[in-house]
Amino acid sequence: MSANLSRRRVEKERGFPSFCKKCGEAAKIFTSKTIKNPGRLFHGCPNGSEEDKNHLFKWTDESAVEEIENMKSHLELQSQRCEDVTRSYDKKIEDLGDALAGFGKEMKEMKELVDGYEKDVKNLKKMVVCGVGMMVVYYYFAM
């Protein structure tokens, strides 16, 4: 009998039941009027009775505990996923910081190159002016 009872418990859905698996009727909440469980709430099938044990019967407090356990498992899973995403983003942010530092170094090197090119352009400009001046002088004296 114990094996049969545990098998029936495994087949039951966890949490609050929504319908009777035997007849498909929507589950309703009833209050126990027995001496053993006075005032205790249970989910049951409106077509069920104490004689017909095949219809839905489940204590509401047990269903509530199962619902809480299900939510706890779900929240733990979601929490783990959030931690994984956070670690992933932390790594990406660290990589971006490294990339920005590298870009800063490259920009400094480029600025040094540009400064060097500016000096070269100034020197080239001086040489062109000098060359033009020499051509003018040559043209003036040669003619």
UniProtKB/TrEMBL annotation:
Q: Which keywords, in A-to-Z order, does the entry hold? A: Membrane, Metal-binding, Transmembrane, Transmembrane helix, Zinc, Zinc-finger
Name the residues that span the membrane: 124-141
UniProt cross-references to InterPro entries, sorted A to Z: Znf_GRF
Which domain of life, per UniProt? Eukaryota
Domain (GRF-type): residue spans on this chain: 20-63
One term of GO molecular function? zinc ion binding
**PROSITE patterns from the entry?**
ZF_GRF
Does Transmembrane count among this protein's keywords?
yes
Q: Which protein is depicted?
A: GRF-type domain-containing protein
Query: From what organism does this protein derive?
Result: Brassica carinata
The organism's taxonomy opens as: Eukaryota, Viridiplantae, Streptophyta, Embryophyta, Tracheophyta
